[in-house]
Design goal:
The complex is a heterodimer of chains A (485) and B (220). Chain A is mainly alpha-helical and 485 residues long. Chain A has helices at residues 2-23, 29-54, 68-97, 103-125, 129-147, 153-188, 197-202, 209-227, 235-242, 245-274, 278-298, 304-325, 328-359, 370-373, 375-388, 395-410, 415-437, 453-467, 471-484, and strands spanning 57-59, 64-66. In chain A, 78% of the residues lie in helices and 1% in strands. With 220 residues, chain B is mostly helical. Classes of the chains: A mainly alpha (485), B mainly alpha (220).
Chain lengths: 485, 220
């Protein structure tokens, strides 16, 4: 049963990729893309219900493993991928209308979009640390041509940087995986099971600590490049700013989470083996540095998508810090923050995408008076900004509050860094968004009605999570936090 | 006795592998760099074959075959074809300061051996001490990526990095599980195709394959 459900989850996007590779140039390709994403979402919901009912399960000869932690990311990924496909339908039509994209480019976009979803879902559900690597690399490969979709000099440069830097990063992660296998085969023996996370987790106390220490450094640096941790982040703002906005939304909202999931899995093994807090401390350090550097960089930004890309680095830093602290409350808060960040950041990118289309530029100095020309896009951006800055009553406030209070309790010296960074980020983003939405405008109306349902749907969910956390959801998160220890 | 010979032979191949990486680091001509890459693949395939033979790990024969087909024949052939199509076959790259690069390379090798020393203690059999060489060639390939200014040579450096990692996998662990190795090989192949597409896009846009044109994106 679980095999079938998992197969549905993985095969639908793979099949969708194939279908769109054939039919991607047809006028109804956008609808087909949304339909496939919707089916994937339904499959993820079915799988989620099952795992919540019956607990962690292995499938396909233990090659796949689903517990409360990764099934929550599966559901989130499938949901945001679905809403982004809804958003991309009118967005890409408008881009086409503006002459920025041709039918051939859209063809590539639709089929890669499905394959990207497939790669992320494999990376999340697989039990094999080697396949995690293969799927992460596949996720890069499917998005790299999407970043350069516009074929402008800037987008080519961004895509090249993304490809080379993430390629190097992921190569280091492979070395880490090899070291992990080296340590594991001494305990588990040669062959297939020595890279399976569930088996490693059972014997983590016996794994050679010196090897695992080195392995974790390589894994953290490797997958950390993907998460966008400072100082390995330089590809991220470029790729997010130059690619089409739906791609920025899924890169920011989803791919970063998937990479972080791989790091968290490794951390569980390494700290279990060392019996210390070595991996957690490293993650806390990288997290704090990313938070601080990204917050300081926000002031210098002139491009609206670049600014929100830096905001993603800031939030990923905060989440990495939370998982690094470990313990039930911090892990719970980290997972909640992952959820609300994904929802809010993709909603912001949706609103920003339409705002940029109206203003005809990504330069914030030239975007003015959004509320006047289109109240819905303007309010979407304002509310999204409030949410991402951690204003109550949005869910980001709840998770940030939990993270900061836990840090105060466990590691008091980090509190000033956290609070100052969050304060700086608030001042920078709020100061730049405010003139964009108020005042007089030069923006033009759009040739197609914008997609605003996804924006407000996401913000509504974030609001609900902030005001009222359903009991089953918090139970679910608590179980997942317990699994990660 | 046989395993003793095998061990010495693999060690010899490892030393040659490191030498090839150094040669690539100093090579100015793009074409020669691709040929060196093919030689590196051949050394890798032979060493994998010997490890497979002497440890009786049958799945390593597949790895050796895969390496031979993919890294000695297919990828160099693809790169040669690209060179011809892009008409950059005889291009020479201006490298800054080869002696300094070499010195940095030597420092990296020493660093790698030190880093790998505690791990080598744990390794058994014929592969002992090879982890240091593998790590050294990983770091040298990274250095190569930093010093190169042409898109094509950066990609060759990237593939050399992949080769070093593969060598690390066979020498330290007698190869990863086969499904993982196939996945990695597939990724490398797809990546090379995408790199090829990129070359054409880059040349079309910038009229050259120099990546110095692509340092315009800044924060302000």
């Amino acid at each position: 049963m679980i095999d079938l459900q998992l197969m549905a989850l993985l095969l639908i996007p793979l099949f969708g990729g194939g279908m769109l590779a054939v039919f991607g140039a047809r006028p109804w390709a956008a609808e087909l893309n949304s339909l496939m994403s919707f089916c994937t979402f339904v499959a993820s919901v079915a799988l989620t219900m099952r795992v919540i009912d019956a607990g962690p399960q292995a499938a396909f000869n233990e090659q796949f493993f689903i517990d409360q932690f990764n099934v929550y990311l599966v559901a989130l990924t499938a949901f945001v991928a679905f809403t982004t496909s809804l958003f991309s339908r009118p967005y890409m039509r408008i881009e086409q209308h503006h002459g920025k994209l041709s039918v051939g480019m859209l063809h590539l976009y639709y089929s890669m979009y499905q394959l990207f979803t497939f790669a992320m879902l494999v990376a999340l559900t697989t039990n094999n640390m080697g396949i995690v690597w293969v799927a992460m690399e596949a996720a890069t490969l499917t998005t790299v041509l999407l970043v350069s979709l516009y074929r402008t000099p800037a987008s080519l440069e961004a895509a090249w940087k993304y490809f080379i830097l993430c390629g190097v990063g992921i190569a280091l992660a492979l070395f880490g995986t090899i070291l992990l296998y080296f340590a594991a085969e001494r305990v588990l023996g040669q062959g297939g099971t020595a890279l399976l996370w569930t088996h490693l987790n059972e014997v983590k106390g016996e794994l050679e600590p010196t090897v695992l220490k080195l392995a974790f450094i390589f894994l953290l640096v490797g997958y950390g490049t993907k998460i966008g941790l400072v100082p390995l982040h330089s590809w991220l703002p470029d790729a997010h700013a130059e690619g089409p906005t739906p791609v920025s939304a899924v890169l920011s909202g989803l791919l970063l989470n998937v990479a972080l999931c791989a790091v968290v899995r490794s951390k569980v093994l390494v700290d279990g083996s060392l019996g210390s807090h070595f991996a957690g401390n490293l993650m806390m350090g990288f997290g704090l540095l990313s938070l601080l550097v990204a917050a300081l960089s926000l002031f210098r930004q002139k491009d609206i998508k670049r600014m929100f890309a830096y905001s993603s680095i800031e939030h990923m830093g905060l989440i990495t810090f939370a998982f690094g602290m470990g313990g039930a409350v911090a892990t719970y808060a980290g997972m909640l923050h992952m959820t609300v960040h994904s929802l809010t950041k993709s909603a912001i990118f949706f609103a920003v995408g339409h705002a940029v289309q109206k203003a005809g530029t990504q330069q914030m100095d030239n975007i003015r008076g959004l509320l006047q020309v289109s109240p819905t896009v303007g309010w979407g951006l304002v509310l999204g900004t409030f949410a991402i800055l951690g204003m109550p009553p949005f869910g980001v406030f709840a998770s940030e509050f939990l993270i900061v209070t836990t840090a105060m309790h466990e590691y008091p010296w980090t509190t000033p860094i956290l609070l100052i960074s969050l304060g700086i980020a608030f001042a920078a983003i709020f100061g730049k968004v405010q003139p964009m939405v108020f005042g007089e405008t030069t923006a033009k109306p759009l040739p197609h009605p914008p997609a605003l349902v996804p924006v407000f749907l996401h913000l509504l969910l974030v609001l609900i999570l902030g005001v009222y956390m359903p009991a089953y959801l918090s139970d679910w998160y608590r179980q997942a936090a317990a699994l990660l220890g | 006795m046989a395993s003793n010979y095998a061990s010495q032979f693999v060690n010899l191949l490892a030393a040659l592998l490191l030498l090839v990486v150094f040669a690539m680091l100093a090579q100015r001509r793009i074409l020669s760099m691709i040929n060196l890459f093919a030689w590196q693949g051949l050394l890798l395939a032979v060493s994998t074959f010997i490890v497979a033979y002497s440890t009786a790990q049958h799945h390593l024969y597949y790895s050796a075959g895969l390496t031979l087909v993919l890294k000695v024949l297919l990828l160099p052939w693809l790169l040669h074809r690209l060179m011809r199509k892009l008409n950059v076959r005889w291009d020479v790259e201006t490298l800054i300061n080869i002696p300094t690069t070499m010195l940095v390379g030597i420092a990296l090798v020493i660093f790698a051996f030190n880093l790998a020393a505690p791990i080598s203690q744990l390794a058994e059999g014929i592969t002992r001490g090879l982890i240091g060489i593998a790590l050294a060639s990983v770091l040298l390939s990274l250095l190569m990526m930093l010093t190169r200014r042409k898109a094509v040579t950066q990609v060759v450096a990237f593939l050399a990095l992949e080769n070093s990692l593969f060598f690390a996998a066979t020498s330290a662990t007698h190869g990863m599980p086969l499904v993982v190795e196939f996945g990695i090989a597939l990724d490398v192949l797809v990546a090379t195709f995408i790199f090829g597409i990129f070359f054409f896009q880059i040349r079309e846009t910038f009229d050259s394959l120099d990546i110095t044109h692509m340092e315009k994106l800044k924060d302000d």
